[in-house]
Amino acid sequence: MHQLRFISSRLFLITTLAFLLMSCQKGELNLGDHVINSSTYTTLIDTVYIQLSTIKEDSISTLATSNAIVGYFRHPLLSGQEAKSYFSMGYPQNFSWDNEKQTFDSLVVVLKPNGYSIGDTTVDVRIQMHTLEEVLETNDDSKLYNTSSFKYSDTSIASATFRPYPNENEELTMRIDDAFALEIINFLNEYENHVDKTSLFKDEYKGFVFSCDTSITRSVLGYSVSDSSAYIRLYSHFSGLEKEEHITDFSLASSVHFNQLQSHNKSIRYNQIADGKSMVKSQQTSNKVLLQSGSGLKFRVDFPTMQNLVEFETKGHIVKAELQLKPDMTIMNRTDLPSNIYIGDIYRANDIWGYLTDSDSNPLSSSLYIDQLYHEKTYYSFDLTNYINSRLIETVIDTDRGLVITLPDTEMGSTFNWLAINGYGRTTRSSKLLLYYYYYDTE
């Protein structure tokens, strides 16, 4: 609905401008009941047609993130999603072994939770550790992606079943198979003085992948990746008058690490987006578009009737343009809402040119307004005043140019955070562009 504060008697011109805006949709402009003769007025117009479409990055670099994620959960729109985390293992610089006095006790892997979780953490998860059959090597561009994969053994060498309790941050410790542990000890002893012992160790012990049992697991958990939070520890002791404990650590964090992220159900329309040049309009997905960090999902905002707005520049000026993006709170919880989303320029074939910036040249982030009671008025807001006005002075309006909405780069490839946004429509829950237009009478 149009809400007007105006002082003017030129209703014909107002109706004409409103008709230009609504040329691609049905609707009428309600001017209100009170008219006062004057030369200026300001009006709010909220019926500018906007097209929202989901797009997808070809791949996301997940190499050397500080967050290892492992698990499986069922997303309300994307269905089953799984995360695996791959590590290579560093050579232990302080290794020594005395065959006569030293006794093996155990070999364990330690992962410390960082508090991240998504899915149902009220049921048990089962995490498994497998040995890799291929050396972890980066691509020609020195990266590994959410779609990268390496062969690994079907048989696990360690596993644990537990209730997550993500807020307690209790470290995950899994005992590794003793036969595998003794094999490592024997290898290190044999090549202890070899000039290429580090390379030989890497070729022999290529690394590990942490996966889950998808038959019982219903959540994805995050673990910190640092020398003090992700490691393999060898426990042994020396026999003598007193038992002397000895510890040797193998680093997981200082070696190669990446996350592999998968969506299992390919019948889902969002999961069928073939490449970075493809897009799915909101009309094809129940009038919703989707962001998700792990899958690389983003969405476009296009303005098919932008050319019609040029008429405004001849009789006035847009003093404020606000884009309101409304989450679908029928499927999202308030705690799922990202605190920030970002907006950028996008062109043909979904070529992203960069973020829009504020007056201090910082990436333009959203403001989040939460309706605590009914959620109908929960929305993200972007101030697009400068953007819209700059588009209106283009010599030729480029209809292939639009906006892209994305989650923060820091979340890409290391979380499954998401946001479902309602498309354009005529309900209180629909996303919309609000234009505050200042008209001046020149006649």
Question: Briefly, what is this?
Answer:
This protein is mainly beta.
Describe the 3D structure.
The protein is mostly beta strands. The chain has 2 domains: 3-57 and 275-440, no CATH class; 67-263, no CATH class. It is built from 5 helices and 26 strands. The strands form 5 sheets. Strands 4, 5, 7, 8, 9, 11, 12 and 15 form an 8-stranded antiparallel beta sheet that branches. A 6-stranded antiparallel beta sheet has the order 1-2-26-19-23-22. β13 and β14 (244-251) form a beta hairpin. The longest helix has 13 residues, at 178-190. It is elongated and about 100 Å long. The model is unreliable at 1-38 (pLDDT under 50).
Protein traits:
eight-stranded antiparallel β-sheet; elongated; disordered N terminus; 443 residues; mainly beta; six-stranded antiparallel β-sheet; single chain; 10% helix
Outline, from the CA principal axes? elongated
Helix/strand/pairing category: mainly beta
Count of helical segments?
Answer: 5
Percent of residues in helical segments?
under 10%
Tell me the number of structural domains.
2
Largest sheet, strands/sense/barrel: 8 strands, antiparallel
Distance between the termini: 28 Å
Topology (elements, then pairings):
Elements (H helix, E strand, L loop, with lengths): L2 E5 L3 H11 L18 E6 L5 E6 L10 E9 L3 E9 L14 E10 L1 E7 L5 E8 L19 E11 L9 E4 L2 H13 L6 H8 L3 E5 L6 E6 L5 E9 L5 E8 L5 E7 L15 E3 L6 E5 L4 E6 L3 H4 L6 E10 L16 E5 L5 E4 L11 E3 L9 E5 L1 H8 L9 E5 L11 E5 L9 E9 L3
Antiparallel strand pairs: 1-2, 2-26, 3-16, 3-18, 4-5, 4-12, 5-11, 5-15, 6-10, 6-13, 7-12, 8-9, 8-11, 13-14, 17-25, 18-24, 19-23, 19-26, 20-21, 20-24, 22-23
